[in-house]
Amino acid sequence: MAARPIIIDCDPGLDDAVALLLAFASPEELDLLGITCVAGNVPLDRTERNARIIRALAWRDDVPVYAGCPRPMLRPLHAAERVHGKSGLDGYDWDEPSAPLADGHAVDFIVDTCLAADDRSITLCPIGPLTNVALAIVKEPGILPKIAEIAFMGGAATIPGNVTPAAEFNIHADPHAARIVLESGVKLTMFGLDVTHQAITTPDRMAAIRDIGGPISEAVTGMLTFYDRHDIERYGAPGGPLHDPCVIAYLLQPDLFGGKDCHVAVETESETTIGQTVADWWGVTGKDANCRVINRIDADGFYALIVERLKRL
Ligand code: RIB
Ligand code: CA
User: Fold this and answer.
1) pTM exceeds 0.85, yes or no
2) What are the structural domains, with CATH classification, of the chain?
3) I need a surface site. Which of 58, 77, 128, 300 has the fewest CB within 10 A?
């Protein structure tokens, strides 16, 4: 079966880094056409640098990295350095990346790649704020029929938010971009906190990653150890949720996940609940479903996949 053509749009970010490594480790299943970077966890100059660092770690400088939007569409950027560190990739001592950014803007790369593709052939995998993806749709609506699916990490359908009581970080960062994506009519698969908070890097799972040995294992263990401290302190959990890799794992092994089709809207006005993803879980609005909300995961199978793939790098 031919490898699935994908674009990962990201804001590395420690969990983004593991998602990128999972994709790099799976060239038979995923044809990673390019990585587009957006401001999110940290400002754009760091997210694009961090994407290039992880690309070098995986020896995949063949995959182009593009810089995209340096801020959300309307709101100011509120970064998450408290979670990912000032660099956005704290927890390990990195060399500066040598391979440069690709020329051109991330939004133009998404547009040009989709326009050149067959209908319903490109899968977009946004795992940060949706600014780049939304602006690609606004700039060139002609890309919509070219997109097979947008599988994104963001939102919270039935549980509280992680950046406000109502909103998850990626959607809260750019709710207006999220609205454009949610109203696009494209096949959407949402990996919100409902499922990612079930993917906890417990000490046993961390040990399995550490026991792989070698530079990749050492780097991932360092990153996740730094990353987990925030959620252990906040939630009293045994580890941190591995949000972004859920999107890539779904592409590799969809039977690890389950969910429900429903209508999802996003709040863009209220200062109290801005960024909330409002999922009509019981169909009370009568609105057609526009999104598959993933809320189940085989967490042991998920981590086994991550370990198996990291061993390949
Ligand atoms: O809420 C979790 C999301 O916000 C993840 O994508 C993480 O990397 C941050 O971007
Ligand atoms: Ca992210």
Assistant:
1) yes
2) 4-312 (3.90.245.10)
3) 300
